[in-house]
Amino acid sequence: MVCMLGFVWCCGEGSSDTVKRERGCYAMAGKGVGSVAKAVAEYQYPWREKLTKYKDELAKGVWGYWELGAWKPLSISARRRARLRKEVLLAGEDWPYDAERKEMKTRRKGHKCDRIAAEKRENTARMMEKMPEMLLDYKKRRWQKKMKEEDKAKS
Question: Which helix (H) or strand (E) is 132 found in, with range?
Fold first, then answer.
């Protein structure tokens, strides 16, 4: 019987590992360890090669870019980009391709009607202070208009 790692078991399935070791039943033990190490090394993500391959594409942005008036997504998917970023950061290298972080908003948005109502109340209070001057200007304009009409009527 051959297991997944390539070991040959010559003993019956019911026997324990200690019995198999005593009988020397692992025929490919030396080669198996080497093949496992090779498989693990091949499986590891070659981030340096990927980083050099996609360097230009990663510099274009996180989601995509506009080219000649058309939106073009990146040639590397977001999942692969995230995996590459994770591998680079885990290796202790610097990842310069992140988007700039914006400042946090300190002012809470709230409901628009509440904000506008407060602004309207402030504006009304300011306008009420100016009201006597505005009334005098209005009366003066009306009086001037009346005088012009009387002058036209006389001439």
Answer: helix 112-154
The DSSP call for residue 6 is S
Structure tokens at 23: 């009988």
Tell me how far apart the alpha carbons of residues 147 and 139 are, in angstroms, rounded to a whole number. Answer: 12
Q: How far is CA 150 from CA 102, 140, 143, 144, 153, in A?
A: 66, 15, 11, 10, 5
**The tokens of 9 are what?**
């078991």
How far is the C-alpha of 71 from the C-alpha of 60, rounded, in Å? 12
For residue range 17-38, list pLDDT tens digits in order. Answer: 554 555 555 545 556 666 766 6
Give the CA distances from residue 25 to residues 8, 10, 62, 74, 116, in Å, rounded to whole numbers and listed in that order. Answer: 7, 5, 54, 53, 84
The per-residue pLDDT for range 61-107, each reduced to its tens digit, is 778 888 899 998 888 888 998 999 998 899 888 888 887 888 888 87
C-alpha 76, offset from chain centre:
15
- CB-based burial of residue 70 (10 Å sphere; 0-12 exposed, 13-18 middle, 19+ buried)? exposed
Indicate whether this model's pTM tops 0.70. Answer: no
| Alpha-carbon span 67 to 58, nearest angstrom | 15
